[in-house]
Every structure is written in C-alpha cells, then in structure tokens.
Amino acid sequence: MQTTHSEPRSSETPTHLWRSPMLGEPRTLPLRQGTLQYFERGDGPALVFAHGWLANANLWRRVVDALADRFRCITLDLPFGSHRIALDPGADLTPPGCGKLIADAIDALGLSAATLVGNDSGGCYSQIATAARPQRIARLVLNSCETIDDAFPPEAFGVLPQAAQSPQGLRQLLTPLEDRSIRMTPAAYGLLLKRPIDDLAFDSYVLPCLREDDVLRDATKVMSSASAVALHEAGLRLIAGFDRPVLFAWSPEDQVFPVEKARAYAARLKQGRVALIDDAYSFTPEDQPQALARAIATFVL
To answer: Which of 127, 131, 107 lies closest to 117 in space, CA to CA?
Structure first.
C-alpha cells in the first residue's frame, strides 16, 4: 500500500517544490553553469551529498537527520529532472559537465577535505568529479551506482536517453507517473525502492519535469547525452592515482547494480572497501537511511 506523507509543508508550496526541513537551510551557489541550490545543516567534517536522475536533495533527508549532530551536511539539488532552480540554457550537462558541476560546487563552497557521497547516477558523476579534482576530496562514498564495469545508464533505464531526444518525448514518457499507483512498478521506481516512500518526496521526484519547462529542458540535456565513456575514464584514473579511502555502501539485494561489481571495483582501488547494507535496493537513503548513516559515520570518523 502506498504510504502517505508525514512531513510538514506549507499549504502554499506545490508538492513538486517541497523540500524536507530535515535538510536544513536552503542556499544557492552562483556557478558558471547558473544558480545551483543546496541545503546545509550541522557542524563538523563536511559531507557533500549528490543524488541521481529523477531525484533531488530530499533523497538524503533522513541520512542528513541522522548525521547533522556530528557533520556539516551539504546536500546538492542537482539539475537531473527533479530540481527547483534550472541552470542557464547553455550549461554543459553531459557526463563530464555534470561532474564539473559537482566539482565546481565543492570549489565554490571552499571545501578542501570533503567526503563526497553519491547515489545512483549521482555516484557516476561523483566519480567523474573526483577524478577531475581529486585534491578536493578526502574520501569518496559510492552508494549503489554505476561502476567502471557498468553501462550508463543501466540497461533497466535505457529508455530514458531514447525518450529524452526531445523534451516532448521525455514528458510523454514521464506523464503516467502523475498516477501514484504506477510509481512503484518496475518500469518506474520499483527496481530502485524496496518499499513505497512518502507522497511528498515522491511528488518532488516525479512532478517537476511535468510542471516546469526549464526543468524538463535540463533533464533532457542530462539524459540525452548519457554515455559511459567519461565514467570509465574516471574509473581508470581513480584506480591509477586516487590513494584516498573509497567506500562502496551497497545492498546485496540491489536490483540494478550488482554488489559483485562493487566488490571488484573496490579491489582495484588503493583504499577501496565495501560495507553491506541489508534490506534495501538502490535508493538506500530511502530504504535504510539509519544504516547508511552509520556506515558513512564509521567510514569518516
């Protein structure tokens, strides 16, 4: 049964614009690509969280809530189809461009020893960002995402780049997600989420592309340009030269990203390690936020 939302929102805020108060204060960064929104909460060692396609900062809300008493939690709201502030029309949103966007955000925040945490395609882009500017990253956490041995996007979601050859095509593909009963099917989020999530969070993931033309424009650019080339190049650079710790926080039940590939990738890195998180699919921050938070805290402290 679909759950109902339990977190507050202002009655004036449309659900597709909702962000959880657990994320902390909303802020913006003026970058060369445009204005990027992020959220900040807590004090201590810096953690930077990156989500993937058709999700947003809300993905990390309960992880942040579990960590903000010990860490400075910075959660990016990236232009991957569920964001509130679109980038400039000319922004580069190819895989190298998305990696640069994350790296530029870390630079603009003045962070010199951040732990970068990426889930799903946000993990792909986090590898590209780390390989491009390793001096900024003290540790890397990859949570259920593409590895050096994977296609990008994974085969299960190969329809997205095809549909995104035009904004109209992508909107047509996503329109059925207006119906909440469809969202947990395998063709939608059912391979990523083991159990349903709050309606507010789900609405914030699936509705922005259907409500905002400039958000749809960004998503179309991101998805239509998807390719594993930059990911594989970044993986080789990390294997060859990244000597800082990398944690693969993975569920043995992952339906999209097999844990065997995470183990193989970790073994090729100088300081790669694997932490298993049970009872979750790829969206571990939704399925098991407390367990993921513990794994991150143990890794960093």
So the answer is: 127
Map out the domains of the chain as residue ranges: 15-300
SS3 169: helix
Phi, psi at 180, each rounded to 5°: -60, -25
How many Å is the maximal CA-CA distance in the chain?
52
Q: Is the pTM of this model over 0.90?
A: yes
How far is C-alpha 280 from the chain's CA centre? 16
Is the backbone peptide bond immediately before 30 cis, with ω within 30 degrees of 0?
no
Helix (H) or strand (E) holding 212: none
* pLDDT, tens only, 147-169: 999 999 999 999 999 999 999 99
Residues 6+ apart with CB under 8 A from 1: 196
Cβ(142)–Cβ(249) below 8 Å: yes
Cβ proximity of 33 and 92 under 8 Å: yes
Enter the CATH code of domain 15-300: 3.40.50.1820
